[in-house]
Amino acid sequence: MPMKIRKLRLAIMVGLGAMIAAPMSIASAQDDPRIAKAAQHAKACEGGNAEACYQRGLLAYMFPNRLSEQLRYFERACAADHATACLQAAEGWEHGPNRNPDKAKFRALMRKACNLGNKSGCSRYAMMATYGWNGPVDFADAKWAFDKDCELSKGSQFESCDGDKIIADARGKYEARQDLYKRAAALPPSSAPKPAKVDTTITEDMYVKQSGSRSNARDTSRSGYTSCTKSDGSRGQRYWYYGFDNKRKEGPCL
Prior knowledge:
The protein is of the alpha+beta class and 254 residues long. 57% of the residues lie in helices and 11% in strands. It contains nine helices and four strands, in the order αααααααααββββ.
């Protein structure tokens, strides 16, 4: 068979295959119950139903621009005081769509999640305020979050009521750094180099990053405390949580 005829025959077969496959894909998409459910949630969300906005956000993985879609619906649900949606929106801004995080939004939304009664939001916001993660150190706000976390966890296996001890330890180290900075700033320029700005935030190397992933199931054990050994050999506690990337992260041993 001449080469031109073979090429023409192949082109016709490919074209016919595409024509057959296209209606089948459209039909299968239309038959997918999740598509219809997503449309129902979107319509209810437009009508002001916070839970529908949250559920539509959970289905965003089926559509283009998945992270932007999720954040849009989670933030709408959060604005209507849906606590879990606030936590999800916060986790979304921790990394941000297109790898463009907004740390201020991350912290503010996490605080709102706590205020609305989300335990994970309280645990994580308390640590942010204690160590100045994604914003200033605020011991008063940290105590509020720790106390709320304790109240929400009473009677559970994840009970965490050691906020005062964690804050006291962090405050001592923070005040020591501030004192050192003031002393350095008071030295004559000729006797000491210009003091560097003291960084009151906790650095990334204080996290113990874990490579293990966790299932997508949402439950009440996305954060908590675990026993650990401090550098001086005494026993302490380490805070842990699962981030938006579904990876476990751990704080310092305190």
